[in-house]
Amino acid sequence: MRRFLVLAALAAAAAAAPAQAPGAEDLLPAKVAQYAQAVESVRGHKFDRAVPATEIDAARLKETLRSKLAESFPASPEETKRTLVGIGMIEDTPNLVDRLVDFYGTQVIAFYDPEPRRFFVVRGAAATLDGEALEGAAEKLIYTHELTHALQDQNLDLDRRIKALKDDGDRALALQCLLEGEATLVMIKAALADLPGADESVEEQIAPLLTAGSLEKANAPKDVPAYFTEQLFFPYAEGTDYVRRTVKKGGWAAVDRLWASPPTSSAEILHPEDPPFAPATNLLPRPETMGPEGARFLYADTLGEWGLRFLLRRGLPSPEADAAAAGWRGDRVAFFAAKGDAIAYVWRIRMDTPEAAGRLLEALARSRKTNASARPEAARREGVDLVVTSGMPGPGGSTGR
Ligand SMILES: [Zn+2]
């Protein structure tokens, strides 16, 4: 669910752009070369090859976003939406895809696309923000950020990697945190390289301002479910903190090690003080066989501590929700389309202790008083696991309860 790779954002940074811009198309390769060098000097890695760049207009941007969005959904857009409504992540939202495309469209000024491995600048995107074209400091921020993604791609083969995580949204989110965090930090350091005397303390002050999340969240449109906006901003804000801590501790060599073995869960991003752990696997073996009679298996996914926390927060104050979600050690949910379009699901969540599973059970029940799932839901603890079901057959199901 949360695999949509928006590689841009930073609209707010560009709004501060000073004036004057020559017609861009001819200048693109020269600019890309110039800013690629800035990225190399911060990051200490060379590009293997020049990054091809193209200008696109707003209409083509929307087409691109629409097709990437459709690709990123685990089922059809309509069915994906119904599963999210079913489990209580979002309200039923008419024209969700259109709203998302419009929203993402406003966030994008330039982006790097790992398929077809090309850097795109949106014609007139900055101009629509403040009446002036993209230039100067803001241009450097955006180019260095996006070109860092190109550098990552040359080393990480992003398209393949992201597609391989298609059925593990939480792991995909953790990878996003690394990618966006690194790109944002390189961008900040490249900008600071232009300021004589700028040191660590300046970075401390400026980093929170330049992580798109904190700037843009306030402008998030009301007609897009918070699930999508918060998921979009999380890798910029928390991911940047994560990568900054990593660089502070071990330099860029430590980020090279993350390239070789990226974070495996949002829990790893949320709890930097805890030793990393491997999330539990095989929590729902053969999910496609588990559905109720006559139902169609839609997809299985991992919602992660981020997803669990988000769901609980819809019915509980954040501190309570976050405390109940801490201790996450893995989860797996499977969704089915049952008769009459109803969504059925089974969700198994592994916690670190039976006590944590008990606390989660209790918190979920309280949260459901204000944010019920679409159909009757049953939840029970099995040792360190919580099993949550709706519309499922058998003794574990909620049917008939
Ligand atoms: Zn990015």
Notes on the protein architecture:
This protein is of the alpha+beta class and 401 residues long. It has 16 helices and eight strands. Mean pLDDT is 87; it is low at 1-24 and 396-401. The chain folds into two domains: 11-270, no CATH class; 287-390, no CATH class. A hairpin with a 5-residue loop joins strand 5 (328-337) and strand 6 (343-351). It is globular, with a radius of gyration of 22 Å. The longest helix is centred in the middle third of the chain and has 35 residues, at 226-260. The structure holds zinc ion (ZN).
The proportion of residues in beta strands is 5-15%
Cα separation of the termini: 29 Å
| Biggest β-sheet strands, sense, barrel | 5 strands, antiparallel
Please state how the strands of the largest beta sheet are arranged side by side: 4-5-6-8-7
Q: Estimate nothing, just give the exact number of structural domains.
A: 2
Order of helices and strands: HHEHHHEEHHHHHHHHEHHEEHEE
Q: Structural class, from helix and strand content?
A: alpha+beta
Poorly predicted residue ranges: 1-24, 396-401
